[in-house]
Amino acid sequence: MSLYVLKFGGSSVATTPRIEHVAGIIADFVEKGHGVVVVTSAMQGATNRLIELTKAFTDSPISREYDAIISSGEHVAAGLLALALNSRAISAKSLTAWQVPITVSGTYSDASISQVSADKIFEMLSQGIIPVITGFQGISANGDVCTIGRGGSDATACAVANAIHADECLIYTDVDGVYTADPRVVLDAQKLEEVSYNDMIELSSWGAKVLQTKSTQIAKEYNVNLRVLSSFSEGYGTRITNNTKYITNNHIVGIAYNLDLFAVYTSKKEIIPELEPYTAMIKPFSGGFLAPKPMQAEIQSSVPLMMNNLDINIDNNIGTVTVVGQTKIDKAYLHDIEYIIDTEYSQAFIVPFQQTLPLVNKLHEMFFSKN
Ligand code: ADP
Ligand code: ASP
Ligand code: MG
Questions:
Q1: Phi, psi angle pair for 256, to nearest 5°
Q2: pTM: predicted TM-score of the whole model, two decimal places
Q3: Which of 10, 69, 121, 148 has the fewest C-beta atoms lying within 10 Å of its C-beta?
């Protein structure tokens, strides 16, 4: 018998028939005698709808209430999944972050998990009850509900898996593993058997949302056995492990892209002090920095003077394409590239928005074409 954390993403619990299907996946583990702890995201689209609702009264909602609202989709999904399990005569109870408890630190909307208490989870398991835990949320030191960044249920799953020393943390999603590029964009992307923690962190920090970056960081730090697989089809999926292939083999892992960033071009070399609270979400480069579009209003209002400075230019109409692995592509070879960001593990290109997906395909063909 093994102990598993099973995490289901929004598409896996998008409708009540999907939740019923997920209950079937959980039932298979139970029938085999395994210990199971479930973490769930909100039903697909729910979080976006909640975000829209927060805009009804103001363009910049109070952070505390914003997080209280947008974390609520997970409550519904966890409750429904517990109902589906009980209707199959499998004892299950939903647990919110309050009830576990899961504590967090840092800022609203981008908090980091500091602790998951294992006591209640073990108590329920010993009584034969499956805990169905809400992902994406935690409780701050002052008792507020905070969210941990979009896609954050992945991080909840990894933190829970670490807290209970699970044998494996399985991330069920709508693709059957991690690919050399987003398989919805590159039709002949190749599925990877295994990706190292470092490669995965680099891929997701440049936009591959199949795993939230923080989740793999937690898995790496605590050596959580992590696997990405589909809740829609059978198959082993992709293992995320400790190996560091590309560093030793000059290996290219994959191509990531991000359409959710805006660029600030500035001649100023030193970090603008007002931006320090945003350091974790900003990517600096020689010509300025990149930041997430949802943070644009907040970032602009924190540095009002900056926006009047003639040295500064903001561009919303960009995308990034990143080759993860060790390579250097000559800028002359590619058209429409505004900037190249070289890091130890990757080379990222800032391109006009419309050029993003064509460039993903072009670079994928260059590195992964079988012909
Ligand atoms: P969930 O709702 O299950 O958390 P997400 O939408 O967050 O699912 O992540 C799954 C999606 O990640 C896939 O549908 C796919 O389009 C996208 N994706 C981006 N890059 C990759 C990649 N390299 N490999 C697999 N999927 C990727
Ligand atoms: N429901 C949250 C989101 O849409 C968290 C998650 O899906 O993991 O970002
Ligand atoms: Mg996700």
A1: -115, 160
A2: 0.95
A3: 69
